[in-house]
Amino acid sequence: MAQDKPADDGIVPDRQSTAPMRAKFLAEALPHMQRYDHKTVIIKYGGHAMGDPQLAAAFAQDIVLLKQSGVNPIVVHGGGPQIASMLKNQNIVSEFVNGLRVTDKKTVDIVEMVLAGAINKQIVSSINKQGGKAVGLCGKDADLMIAKKITHLPNPDTGELEPVDIGFVGEPYQVNPHILGVMSRSDLIPVIAPVGVSPEGETLNINADTFASAIARQMTAKRLLLLTDVNGVRDRDGKVIPKLSIPAAKALISDGTINGGMIPKIKSCIEVVEAGVEAVVIIDGKVPHAVLLELFTEHGAGTLLGTRYQVPQQG
Fold first, then answer.
1. What is d(CA 191, CA 135) in angstroms, rounded to the nearest whole number?
2. Which of 117, 123, 286, 311 has a CA positioned 20 to 30 A from the CA of residue 255?
3. What is the DSSP pairing of strand 302-306 with strand 203-205?
4. Is the pLDDT reported for residue 299 higher than 80?
5. Beta strand 279-284 with 302-306: parallel, antiparallel or unpaired?
6. Separation of alpha carbons 315 and 301, rounded Å
7. CA 39, 43, 48 angle in degrees (round to 5)?
8. Beta carbons of 118 and 77 less than 8 angstroms apart
9. CA 93 to chain centre
């Protein structure tokens, strides 16, 4: 008599034993789902997660589930490694000033092609494959992001602003979110490339974190999630700090606990919260389903910075 074929590990799963655990998880997720019902969540998608097919599929599933759960997700994506690869193929050497790529006319054309073209459509296709209805945009569409050229940057040593010429690199000047409001009231999911346009009609490359932060402020989002290659802000013992208040974050910058490239990221998070966004979360994008873990579970998946959170007492 033929028998059921066992799983690869030789163990036939017991559905009856796993069903209660699954039901418990769904029940625990319910109050978190209600918290975000009809709320806008901005997700900045970048880092190594974008280059891993399994992580990309998990991210797409998360976004579709958010939309089907009544949340209004808006995705803003980066693409630094892909831009670097294309520039290398074109024998264009990149220089960086304060972490920003010096961008001449030829470079900005490639940046727009990679960000608003290849990468944007890959993410759109991935979300649609999971049953969503994603639509690709960039800051040029409906004048979503009017930007101005960056002409001054802080000196790394003194912090004083100094004049710079880094080409077609911009910072948000005016956000016109009408198109996002229309899409959020429908079943469509916006996926935005961080390319803006100047008042003179010039294409400008904008840092994805900065772009997402500007969108979150203008939309008064419930949350801004920054998917990165780190799992949050760490204390002096190397442990991830799950929640931070603004005063606590500033104190950690002052005493050197927050240092290096994390300083401008945290300062940007503080500005977003002070502008009315309830909280910003720094999440490790290399964790599968990191978005769902952060929004629909009690423990979250990174460091949350908001107005009412404090650094936990160290033992």
1. 6
2. 286
3. unpaired
4. no
5. antiparallel
6. 22
7. 160
8. no
9. 27
pLDDT digits (tens, 9 = 90+) for 223-248: 999 998 887 888 888 888 888 889 98
Q: What does pTM read for this prediction?
A: 0.86
Q: What angle do CA 267, 271, 274 make, to 5 degrees?
A: 135
Q: Helix 120-129 crosses helix 53-68 at what angle (to 10 degrees)? A: 60
Chain-centre distance of CA 90, in angstroms? Answer: 28
Predicted confidence band of residue 312 (pLDDT cuts 50, 70, 90): very low
Q: Locate 199 and state its tokens.
A: 């008042």
The sign of the torsion formed by the CA atoms of 7, 12, 15, 21 equals negative
Residues 6 or more apart whose Cβ sits within 8 Å of residue 247: none
Q: Where are the alpha helices (DSSP H) in the chain?
A: 15-35, 53-68, 80-89, 105-112, 120-129, 178-184, 208-219, 246-254, 262-274, 290-296
User: What SS3 state is found at 25?
Assistant: helix
* For the chain, the helix, strand and coil percentages under 3-state DSSP, each to the nearest 5: 40, 25, 35
Residues 178-229: tens digit of each pLDDT: 999 999 899 999 999 999 999 999 999 999 999 999 999 999 899 999 998 8
The rounded percent of the chain whose pLDDT value lies above 90 is 50
- How far is Cα of residue 33 from the mean position of the Cα atoms in its chain? 20
Q: Which amino acid belongs to residue 289?
A: H
β-pairing, 134-138 vs 189-193, is parallel
Question: Residue 50: how many CB atoms within 10 A of its CB?
Answer: 22
Position 207 scores a pLDDT of: 92
Q: Which of 87, 39, 42 is nearest to 210 (CA)?
A: 42
